Amino acid sequence: MTLTFAPDTDDAIPLYLVPKDGVDAFRKTLSGRDAGWLDARGFKGNLGQVVSFPGDSGKVALAVVGYGDGKARARKRFGTATARGVLPDGIYRLVTELEGDALDEVALGWLLAGYRFDRYAKNPGPKANMIAPDNVDAARIEAIAAGEHLTRDLINTPANDMGPDELEAAARNLASRFDAEISVTTGDALLEANFPLIHAVGRASPRAPRLIDMRWGADGPNLVLVGKGVCFDTGGLNLKPGASMGLMKKDMGGSATVLGLAHMIMALGLKLQLRVLIPAVENAVDGSAFRPGDVLPSHKGLTVEINNTDAEGRLVLADALAVADAEMPDMIVSMATLTGAARVAVGPDLAPFYATDDMDASAVKAGAKRAADPVWEMPFWTPYEPRIEPGIADLDNAPSGGFAGSITAALFLKRFVTDTDRYLHFDIYGWQPAAAPARPKGGVGQGARALLEALPGMLKL
Questions:
Q1: 8 Å CB contact between 198 and 316
Q2: Which of 29, 81, 363, 423 is the most exposed place for a label (fewest CB within 10 A)?
Q3: Which UniProt keywords apply (predicted)?
Q4: Judgement on whether residues 132 and 199 belong to the same structural domain of the protein
Q5: Is residue 3 in a domain?
């Protein structure tokens, strides 16, 4: 399955995009028969409403999809994408006066609506496809859709087929496709290379922990993407209840998202030097598992008291962030399915993010709006820093009290980025709980499109 536009053809079926306030004008362009057909179908231009018109041969001659009004589009982004699953089989040509970001959103939504996860069961996508609309950068939109496809597939794959080995294989496949360099430090070699936190979290699993390190590009500013790769999280000795463990195949959603973003960056040939770091582990339980009360060293030299083995994501990220920080890149971005507190605060749709630079934060928010990839800025609130300082060690991985869980986790990570001025952290969910336009239930990327949109301005590409 590939999410691409159809090749151009003279036989394409016209697909008219009509807003609520444009229905009367569109009706006047139709023949008497077709106008009657439109009326009989009750077409009001509602967002995603579809009517197809039969021709003399019985095949579809033209079709119309409602574009709604501003309020409807604000409440349901990619709303027209539902048309792809409703329209009859065929290749369509979009007819619209839209341009710019609005047209890009319609085109991208069409491609994303074709995604299906079909590795284990037949789950055919819609048979309708569309020629790339005029005045859109089709190659760019297809690259974005392909990156999102990669992210979704990685998250949706269950942990029995997506452990650290398989995550490494996915990274190697991506590196091979774009001639990137990749190295992996695995198992006890992590201790020799001074990555003690990654090793500690993953050592109880028979699937060896590792740090995946991919580099691409020889010119331009330096960008490092760090993605949490906890391929399954039992909670460790602080074992999760069954209901909380059910979705933990998605705990590598941060790594899946940075790999998807890396695909977009490399496919589009952005003029930057990219590094992707993924600490890939399984947080399992056996006699060698790390324990509550342990005090562990880190790559940075800071010590960490373990007060909850289920707060493991920040531990593996800490070592990866420290090695990223040592090279003092122009920007570091971390992405992780890190805290339940973030979900309580903003729900599953919004990706909370933190930024050390106000201009970067503004750029991400503007990019998110243009890319229909919603984010929400959160503060690195320094008055909370004493909460992550336990006294017995430099840092506490799970402060008691329950307040500001996402913020204290972000502050913990920020302690490992001390030499790089520009740092962004995304506390994503990585999962669509119920199907929505262009977003089937299951794994989903968050923040990647917003960042892709913002990067040229932030890094002056």
A1: yes
A2: 29
A3: Aminopeptidase, Hydrolase, Manganese, Protease
A4: no
A5: no
Q: What pLDDT digit, counting tens, does each position of 229-261 carry?
A: 999 999 999 999 999 999 999 999 999 999 999
pLDDT tens digits for 187-211? 999 999 999 999 999 999 999 999 9
The answer to whether 432 touches 78, Cβ cutoff 8 Å, is no
Whether residues 369 and 411 fall in one domain: yes
197-215 burial, b for 16+ CB within 10 Å, e for fewer? bbbbbbbbbebbbbbbbbb
Render pLDDT for 375-423 as a digit per residue (tens, 0 to 9). Answer: 999 999 999 999 999 999 999 999 988 899 999 999 999 999 999 999 9
Of the residues 136, 166, 199, which one is the last residue of a structural domain? Answer: 136
CATH of the domain at 36: 3.40.220.10
SS3 (DSSP) at 62: strand
DSSP tag of 143? H
**Does any domain span residue 80?**
yes
Residue of 422, 426, 458 lying closest to 445 (CA atoms): 426
HSE toward the beta carbon, residue 109, CA cutoff 13 A: 25
Q: Which residues participate in catalysis according to the annotation?
A: 240, 314
pTM of the predicted model over 0.90: yes
Cβ–Cβ under 8 Å, residues 170 and 298: no
Residue 208 CA to residue 279 CA, distance in Å, equals: 11
Owning domain of residue 264: 143-458
Nearest to 449 by CA among 26, 7, 112: 112
Q: What does the alpha-carbon distance between residue 9 and residue 204 come to, in Å, rounded to a whole number?
A: 57
What tokens were used for 173? 């496949």
Owner of token pair 């159809």? 6
Return the percent helix, strand and coil in the chain, to nearest 5. 40, 20, 40
Domain of residue 180, CATH code: 3.40.630.10
CB atoms within 10 A of CB 34: 17
Kindly state the tokens that stand for 373.
Answer: 């990839």
Write down which residue in 136, 170, 201 finishes a domain.
136
Q: Is residue 167 part of a domain?
A: yes
Residue 7 lies in a domain: no
The verdict on 248 and 388 lying in the same domain is yes
Q: Domain tally for the chain?
A: 2
Q: Is the dihedral of CA 197, 199, 203, 209 positive or negative?
A: positive
- The b/e string for 172-190 (b: 16+ C-beta within 10 A; e otherwise) is eebbeebebebebbbeeeb
The one-letter amino acid code at 26 reads F
